[in-house]
């Protein structure tokens, strides 16, 4: 709430940005002194909120910030680069933004608005889309309607000429400072015809991009060009303009367009990304008469061969499947993996990709399990034919939401709620700023269930939700990489054997159905009344696994415990040790006989003609029955696999591949980021 209050103050009075930057600078200097006296990592944590708030003040500022103040901030940020990763990475990202804004005032605002609002121009082609995917298992009909209204309220009053006027006004005011009469300029732009506004907008965008390209040496030419554009706008105005100037006339940064939908099918994510990234390509293909009929026939052929996967991009995949691949394409998926690690700053890199898809999932652990599966599917498709990723920069975000109300639920439901939000709890522990800003939304969203939302009159409450989401999208640039695990299950049903390959991100639970009644019976009894004389503890299962040791030596072990179920988790191990491994617990009726092991690879096989029921990521929709054997190992990234069509070929590429982690991780953006 304090961060949001500060943000609202800045929006209501953009001229206060200079004083706010001075306050934030003093805070950074205090923290630098504290860091110099202690080496505890806890002292680093408080740097992150100040850095992100500083970035937000700079990008939202409607006033010219003195060069001397920028220089002081720049020197302070340079000192923060000695911090360990990922804190130094956030400092470096902020430093780059500050440097860009020093040389080219207004550039951060312009680029952000152009990308978020998809303003077409010839000089900065980046386009962004925000997709919010909500899990139907969590969202009631009323909550869906309310959240949809809250988030889609961002699309009101979004008109291209208005956005272009705002960009021109903000850049000229920020660049020219006191020589710009803001109120006169705003009146002149308001009186201008749309084609005139479009012309000025294109000129301003060109001036900004040329200045960024030329660096510090182009600053003088940049300011001169802004002065010329400013004079032309005032001279072209046919309306009487008051001579009085009332200070800043800049509005707030507009909300991006947010597309909200219930995520019912895994392939919905691929279809959304394909429609966004391949729209221009699809239009160009359909405009060629020679290719239209071929496209239709191949699409029909794909539908016949794959009736369960009617993909709008299948024709492209088939048509281009056997072309020679460019060298740059071969490393695209590898680059995606490198940029998913904390320390990279993709926002400031020159990127040939013209689209950025920001996918926000809302739900509990179950929705992250589905996201992991969909993400793996995308990587697998792209490894066979690079289609999306050479045009699309995919960024993933997570807002935890549960359908359980802790304050009105019995203790059992409360424990269930905590279990379903284990990954949210993990992200909150590794990034306290995520915990304060994003995990706290859970309580706000729960209150919205059952309430009606008046779309014509946004409330302070839904503005807080929208503002926090936008803050997360703009400042949450450092990913937490959640390792994925492959599961191969051998099933036997009605005498027919089959093998199913799946994956999970946090949790796998397998139990033997015949012993569920024993588990339920004993869980209701007080511990004092449980007797060791009980003869049935569970069934015998065969287990083979690779033991995790400090020496990194692998040792294959074999056991045959008596158990009624197995619980396998990964999220706790990643936080406590920094090493990625699974914690496997074999449950017995008597808790004293439970067995716990740590491993990365394990094989479990039933005996005595029994079978397992396996549930992945606590999602009942991903339950498999009649399972005789499960084999679990780290999930390999299809984009880095030797079986990929894009396998590296040159000596340089092979060296890079040698040191690259081949395990696939789910990169969830946070404010701090960490490699698990």
Give the amount of beta strand, in percent. 15-25%
Main structural class: alpha+beta
Oligomer: single chain
What does the average pLDDT come to? 79
C-alpha end-to-end distance:
30 Å
Number of strands: 18
What's the overall geometry? elongated
Low-confidence stretches: 284-325, 345-349, 407-417
Q: What percent of residues adopt helix (DSSP H or I)? A: 40-55%
Number of helices: 27
Output the strand order for the largest sheet.
Answer: 8-12-13-14-16-15
Which radius of gyration do the C-alpha atoms yield?
28 Å
Q: Please summarize the sheet with the most strands.
A: 6 strands, antiparallel, barrel
Structure report:
With 676 residues, this protein is α+β, with helices and mostly antiparallel strands. Among the domains are: 105 residues; 177 residues, no CATH class; 143 residues, Tumour Suppressor Smad4. It contains 27 helices and 18 strands. The strands form 3 sheets. The protein has a 6-stranded antiparallel barrel. The protein has a 4-stranded parallel sheet with strand order 2-1-3-4, sandwiched between helices. A 3-stranded mixed sheet has the order 17-5-18. Helix 2 packs antiparallel against helix 4, helix 2 packs parallel to helix 5 and helix 10 crosses helix 12. The longest helix is centred in the first third of the chain and has 21 residues. It is elongated, with a radius of gyration of 28 Å. About 9% of the residues have low confidence.
């Amino acid at each position: 709430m304090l961060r949001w209050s500060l943000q609202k103050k800045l929006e209501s009075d953009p001229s206060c940005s200079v004083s706010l930057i001075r306050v934030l600078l003093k805070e950074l200097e205090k923290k630098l002194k504290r860091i110099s006296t202690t080496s505890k990592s806890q002292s680093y944590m408080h740097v992150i909120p100040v850095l992100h708030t500083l970035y937000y003040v700079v990008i939202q500022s409607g006033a010219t910030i003195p060069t001397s103040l920028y220089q002081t901030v720049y020197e302070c940020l340079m000192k923060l680069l000695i911090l360990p990763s990922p804190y130094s990475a956030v400092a470096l990202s902020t430093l780059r933004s500050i440097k860009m804004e020093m040389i080219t005032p207004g550039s951060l605002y312009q680029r952000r608005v152009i990308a978020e609002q998809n303003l077409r121009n010839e000089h900065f082609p980046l386009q962004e889309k925000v997709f919010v995917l909500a899990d139907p298992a969590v969202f009631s009909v009323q909550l869906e309607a309310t959240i949809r209204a809250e988030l889609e309220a961002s699309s009101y009053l979004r008109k291209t000429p208005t956005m272009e006027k705002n960009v021109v006004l903000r850049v000229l005011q920020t660049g020219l400072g006191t020589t710009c009469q803001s109120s006169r300029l705003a009146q002149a732009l308001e009186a201008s015809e749309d084609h005139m506004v479009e012309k000025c907008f294109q000129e301003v965008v060109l001036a900004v991009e040329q200045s960024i390209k030329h660096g510090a040496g182009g600053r003088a030419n940049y300011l001169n060009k802004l002065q010329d554009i400013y004079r032309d706008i005032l001279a072209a105005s046919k309306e009487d303009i008051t001579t009085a100037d009332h200070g800043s006339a800049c509005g707030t940064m507009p909300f991006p367009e947010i597309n909200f939908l219930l995520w019912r099918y895994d392939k919905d994510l691929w279809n959304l990304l394909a429609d966004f990234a391949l729209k221009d390509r699809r239009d160009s293909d359909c405009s060629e008469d020679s290719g239209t009929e071929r496209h239709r026939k191949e699409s029909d052929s794909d539908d016949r061969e794959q009736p369960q996967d009617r993909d709008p991009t299948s024709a492209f995949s088939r048509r281009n499947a056997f072309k020679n691949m460019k060298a740059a394409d071969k490393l695209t998926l590898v680059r995606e993996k490198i940029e998913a690690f904390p320390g990279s700053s993709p926002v400031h890199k020159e990127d040939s990709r013209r689209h950025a898809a920001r996918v926000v999932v809302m739900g509990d652990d179950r929705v992250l399990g589905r996201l992991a599966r969909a993400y793996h599917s995308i990587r697998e498709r792209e490894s066979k034919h690079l289609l999306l990723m050479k045009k699309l920069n995919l960024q993933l975000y997570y807002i935890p939401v549960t359908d359980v109300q802790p304050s009105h639920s019995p203790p059992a439901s409360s424990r269930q709620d905590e279990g379903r939000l284990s990954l949210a709890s993990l992200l909150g522990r590794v990034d306290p700023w995520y915990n304060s800003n994003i995990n706290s939304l859970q309580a706000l969203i729960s209150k919205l269930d059952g309430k009606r939302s008046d779309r014509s009159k946004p409330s302070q409450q839904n503005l807080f939700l929208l503002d926090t989401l936008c803050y997360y999208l703009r400042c949450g640039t450092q990913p937490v990489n959640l390792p994925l695990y492959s599961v191969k299950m051998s099933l036997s049903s009605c005498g027919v054997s089959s093998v199913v390959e799946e994956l999970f991100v946090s949790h796998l639970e397998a139990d033997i159905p015949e012993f569920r009644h024993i588990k339920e019976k004993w869980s209701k009894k007080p511990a004092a009344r449980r007797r060791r004389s009980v003869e049935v503890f569970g069934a015998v299962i065969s287990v083979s696994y690779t033991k995790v040791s400090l020496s990194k030596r692998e040792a294959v072990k074999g056991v045959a415990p008596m158990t009624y179920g197995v619980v396998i988790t990964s999220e706790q191990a990643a936080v406590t040790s920094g090493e990625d491994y699974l914690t496997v617990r074999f449950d017995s009726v008597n808790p004293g006989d439970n067995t716990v092991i740590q491993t990365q690879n394990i094989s479990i096989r039933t005996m005595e003609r029994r079978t397992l029921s396996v549930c992945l990521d606590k999602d009942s929709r991903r339950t498999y029955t009649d399972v005789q054997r499960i084999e679990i190992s780290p999930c390999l990234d299809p984009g880095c696999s030797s079986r990929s069509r894009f396998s590296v070929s040159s000596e340089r590429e092979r060296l890079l591949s040698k040191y690259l982690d081949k395990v696939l991780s789910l990169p969830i953006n946070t404010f701090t980021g960490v490699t698990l």
